[in-house]
Amino acid sequence: LSVSDNGVNEIVAEPSPWRAVLDQGHTVCSINLRGRGVSAPRMPHGGPAFYRGMPLEDRFAWTNLVLGKPTIGQRVWDVLRALEYLGTRPDVNASQIRIAGSGSAAIAGGMAALLEDRVRSLLIRHAIPSYQSIVDAEDYSVSLDWFVPGILEHFDLPDLLASMHPRPVWIDDAIDANGKPIPESAVRDCYRQRLPENSPVFDTLQFGVAPSGEDLYSRWLRNT
Fold first, then answer.
1. Which residues partner with 175 through β-bridges?
2. Could you tell me the pTM of the whole model?
3. CA-based nearest residue to 79, from 58, 103, 100
4. Which residues pair with 205 in a beta bridge?
């Protein structure tokens, strides 16, 4: 299952990062999470003052926050329903379902994977390593649809992904609060700050930065 901030068109893009996976006969399901692609809402012309001059994505996120239903939580629900659907298909091996996510969609995918035991492994790309990294940054460009009010009072992303153990989790091409690439060592340090050094979780976590042109998706499928 692929979920991406780029929407379903990532699968059919030229060149597609999924080309080798499809050529190998794997079935790939890609969905538009709400607020993305054809799922983007049509907002009213009126509305609160904070709507003015804001892009549709931010207006949608603000509306959901005001309603007490953060966008990313709704997207977790979308992923869970997609997994439920895949489990009903005769051409899908339920024991081989994996989630690959990119951007904020990757965080939604990770949260859904934790709630759904049928997910065999998880790949997260182009996502922040932790919500704490936003708090620590002098400024940030993270969009509102990533936010969950009060989440750090309970857990952070390393805690969440560690709970996937013993299922494999790959974290590649992580970004900082301004969307810039960060080194693999910085991501490892982020996890070491949250988890014991000798934690068995590190046996199933893999951190990396995929070299240009490397077929990351095929390697992930082959090794998980």
1. 181
2. 0.91
3. 100
4. 169
State the DSSP code for 146. G
Give the count of beta carbons closer than 10 Å to the beta carbon of residue 220: 21
- φ, ψ of residue 172 in degrees (nearest 5): -120, 150
Query: Which residues have a Cβ under 8 Å from the Cβ of 45 and sit 6 or more positions away?
Result: none
3-state secondary structure of 175: strand
Rounded to 5 degrees, φ, ψ at 102 are -135, 135
How many residues are present in the chain?
224
Over the stretch 163-180, which tens digit does the pLDDT of each residue have? 999 999 999 999 999 999
- Classify 69 as helix, strand or coil: coil
Helix locations, the chain, DSSP H: 9-12, 19-23, 56-66, 71-86, 104-115, 132-136, 157-162, 184-194, 216-223
Q: Can you tell me the distance from the alpha carbon of 42 to that of 159, in angstroms, rounded to the nearest whole number?
A: 36
Residue 83 CA to residue 49 CA, distance in Å, equals 38
Instruction: For 13-55, write each residue's pLDDT tens digit.
Output: 777 778 888 888 888 899 989 888 777 777 666 666 666 677 7
Q: For residue 24, count other CB atoms closer than 10 A to its CB.
A: 12
Peptide linkage before 166 cis (omega within 30 of 0): yes
Residue 214 CB: number of other CB atoms within 10 A?
Answer: 12
CA of residue 112 relative to chain centroid, distance: 9
Task: Report the first-to-last Cα separation within the chain, whole angstroms.
Answer: 14
Which one, of 121, 119, 77, 122, lies nearest residue 94 by Cα? 119
Rounded-to-integer distance, Cα 32 and Cα 34, Å: 6
